[in-house]
Amino acid sequence: MDLLRDNELIYGRLLTVDEPHLIGRYNKALAAFGLKPTGLESFHIDRTGFSPEIAEECGDQAYLDPNGVNRRFIILTPSQIDLPVVHTAFSNTSQLMFEFMSRNSRAIDALTIKDVLYGEIEDSVSKVEDIEDLLSINQVEFRVLSAEDVLGKAAELGTLVDRLKQEPDAWRDNEMLDRMVELAKVTGDIRENALVPDQVIFRHNAYWTSHFGGLYVFVDKDVTTVVGDPAAPGFRRSRPWQVSYLSIKDADTVFKFLATSGRIELPRASWVESSGYLEHRAEMVVRDLIWQSDPDRNLSSVDKVWLQTWIHNHADAINRDGNFPFLNAAKREIGQLGRLKIEEVKPQQRFLVVRAKPSHPDAWLTNRLISDFVPSDFVSRYIFNKQGFYRDYEGYSEVWRSHVVDVLKTTYLRDKATFRTRLYGLAD
Asked: Which domain of life is it from (predicted)?
C-alpha cells in the first residue's frame, strides 16, 4: 500500500497530530477506551479520530470500531469535520459524524480549547450476528465524554446557576458560590460558551456495511431493501413481511429495483453525450482486458493511439468479452434514438451504461452498488467503493498497480469535483 500512501490514494488529507498537548489528550481518550497510550510523536487522524499509524502500532485496525458497531470517536479539534473517514464498517459513519459536528459546532469549538471529546456512536445492538441486528438499528445516539470532565462540570455549573436564580437565599450559600467559581475556572462563562452538545440523536438511513461480506440497506417509505449475499445469516428470514431481499448475484433483479425506485438514470442522450460516460467505460473495459492478457506489461507510455492499436490487434479477445462492442453499439443507438432500449440489454451489461440519479439522496450509495457490477472500472471503484478498490488492488501485479495509480492521478485526482460532475453529475 506504500504506492497508494505516497500518492495520497489511501489515508490522504488526514490531519497531522504532533503537538504534545494534543497527543496527551488523545492518549487520555485511548485510556478511557481501555487502550494503551501511543508512544508516537506524530500521527494522522481522520474525521472520527482514527489513526492508521496508531492502528498499526497497536496491531488492530478496528481499535475504534470493536465488533463493527457502536463506533468510537475522538475529537481533538473542530477542523476534523473537513476530513474524510478512512476506516469504518458502515458507509454512513462519515455523514453521521458530519451531522453531529455541524449541529454541535459551538459546543465542540468551546470544549476542544481545553479538552478532548470522545465517546461512541451508540445504536441498539452490541454485536451484529445476523441481518436482523442490522435492521433493528433505526437511529444512533452520540454518547459524549471529555477527559477533563468539562462536560460534567458545565452541567453541574448550569444546575447551580439555575438554583441561584430560583432560590431566594441561594446567594447566601458561600460553599455553593465557591464551587461555582471553581467550576467557572474550568468551563468559562457557560452563558456565552455552549459546552453541552444540543443534538446527539440522528437517523440511521441507507448504508453499506462490511458485515457478511458486504451488504446494502436501502430505506423507502413502505419497504426496506437488503442487497447482499444470500448466504448471510437472516437473509430472507428477518422481517420478510416488510423487507425485500435481493441477491447481489442477481443482476437483473438488482437493476430492476434501482430503476423502479428511481435511483438510477437510464442511458439517454441528455446526459450520456455530454458526460463522456460511455467513452470512459469503454476505455476501462479495454484497460482491464490488457491487464487480464498481460498483467506484467509496462503501460507507463500508453496513449490513446497505443490503445486503439491494441484493440485492433486483439479483436478476437475484444469480441469474446463483448463489453467494448456493446458500448460502441450503445453509443450509436443513443446518438440515433436519443435513448438505449435497456430492456434488450443483458442484465450484467446494463450497469455499464447507467449511473445513480444525482439528485437522489442515495446517489453515492447507488454508485457504489453499481461499481460492484462493473469491477473493470477501477476509477469508479476508487471514487465510490474504496474498500472494494483496495481489495482489488491487493491482487494487482506491481506494474499494474503503478499503472492504476497513474490513471487515477491524471484523471480523478487532477480535479476531483470537475471529474465527478462531468461523469456522474455529482456536485459534491
From this structure: Bacteria
Residue 191 falls inside a structural domain = no
Please check whether residues 261 and 227 belong to one and the same domain.
no
Whether 177 is covered by a domain: the verdict is no
Residues of the domain holding 339: 250-424
* Angle (nearest 5°) at CA 355 between 345 and 217: 100
Q: Write out pLDDT tens, residues 170-191.
A: 788 888 888 888 877 776 665 5
Q: Are residues 260 and 244 part of one domain? A: no
Asked if 106 and 230 sit in the same domain, the reply is no
Query: Within this chain, do residues 70 and 47 fall inside the same structural domain, yes or no?
Result: yes
pTM of the model as a whole: 0.87
Beta-carbon-side half-sphere exposure of residue 330 (alpha carbons within 13 Å)? 31
Structural contact between residues 277 and 355, judged by C-beta atoms closer than 8 angstroms: yes
The reply to whether 85 and 40 lie within a common domain is: yes
Are 322 and 367 part of one and the same domain? yes
Contacts of 332 (CB under 8 A, 6+ apart): none
The 10s digit of each residue's pLDDT in 81-119 is: 999 999 999 999 999 999 999 999 988 998 898 889 999
**Helix extents (H) in 82-241:** 93-103, 105-111, 131-135, 150-166, 174-187
213 touches 230 (CB < 8 A) = no
Asked if the structure places residue 186 within a domain, the reply is no
Q: Which cell is 160 given?
A: 447551580
Instruction: Provide the 8-state DSSP code for 82.
Output: G
Total tally of structural domains belonging to the chain: 3
* Of the candidates 414, 397, 375, 360, the residue with the CA atom closest to the CA atom of residue 220: 360
- Distant-in-sequence contacts of 192-197, Cβ < 8 A, 24+ apart: 193/106, 193/110, 194/106, 194/107, 194/110, 195/107, 195/110, 195/111, 195/150, 195/151, 195/154, 196/107, 196/151, 196/154, 196/155, 196/158, 197/100, 197/103, 197/104, 197/107, 197/108, 197/142, 197/144
Whether residues 44 and 140 fall in one domain:
yes
